[in-house]
Design brief:
- The chain has 259 residues and is α/β, with parallel strands linked by helices.
- It has 2 domains: 204 residues, 3-Layer(aba) Sandwich (Rossmann fold); 36 residues, no CATH class.
- The chain is built from 8 helices and 7 strands, in the order E-H-E-H-E-H-E-H-E-H-E-H-H-H-E.
- The structure holds nicotinamide-adenine-dinucleotide.
- Nicotinamide-adenine-dinucleotide (NAD) binds next to helix 1, helix 4 and helix 6.
- One of its GO terms (molecular function) is oxidoreductase activity, acting on the CH-OH group of donors, NAD or NADP as acceptor.
- One of its GO terms (biological process) is fatty acid biosynthetic process.
Amino acid sequence: MGRFDDRTAIVSGAGGGIGRACALLLAAEGARVAVTDIARDRAEETTALVRAAGGVAATYPADVTSGAEINEVVASAERDLGPVTLAVGAAGIIRNRPFLELPEEGWDATMAVNLKGTFLLLQAAGRRAREHGGGSMVAIASVAGRGARPTSADYAASKAGVISLVRSAAQALAADGVRVNSVCPGVVDTDMTRAIHRERAAITGTTPEKSFAALAGQIPLGRTVSPGEVAETVAFLLSPTASYITAQAVNVCGGLEMD
Ligand code: NAD
């Protein structure tokens, strides 16, 4: 018996590091997974990995900034995979820009994907979960949303927004049996992080590996966190074991403080 037998989960950003790890873990524990991402090829790779491991998944390419596209993903997932009662919002973007050089369109893009995209997913999936008598949802925020990022003010503000949005959604849906929480990773070894360190290394004249290692050295536990470790916390929050936990933001950061 898996923790998510006979449940259907939507995972956004499921072509990325954290989203893929969540899709794989939920499927390994019995969930049928609707894999959605703006990058069709990466989403298809995730679906193929789930199926290769004996799980059930289907791909639904979509842009989380479009309410119409997200509603279509949810409707298609219900038709193909069954009642949607679980959701993970892992789609996200980051662009490292010093505060005074952050362009207006960069601010808008970050807010659209990270904050509006999370809102649209939680609303669409929340409506279905309420209809089915309950469910659980997790949005991936960040420890950056609890503090400050002078080179990513847009990112930190969007993630602070996600933490707040999740609390509001949780309070709105609690009476319907729908729990909503956020997970705040520290530094995860994914494409997103590797891209930042390639950029930083070019500016500071070091190598991406040295730049990454220097950051890892600042983390109290002395290392970065794997996507799989983040997924374990997501799965815990989605599972019945967390039945009394809602409206919370859970750090998975090795003790790293961002402020
Ligand atoms: P990633 O780049 O590997 O994955 C992000 C995924 O989101 C990609 O597959 C991308 O195609 C998808 N995406 C981007 N824009 C989209 C859009 N408009 N519509 C649909 N999908 C879209 O990054 P990751 O590290 O796996 O990040 C996942 C989440 O975790 C993000 O929200 C990120 O902010 C958050 N996070 C990451 C870290 C880290 O250190 N990597 C730390 C804290 C929080």
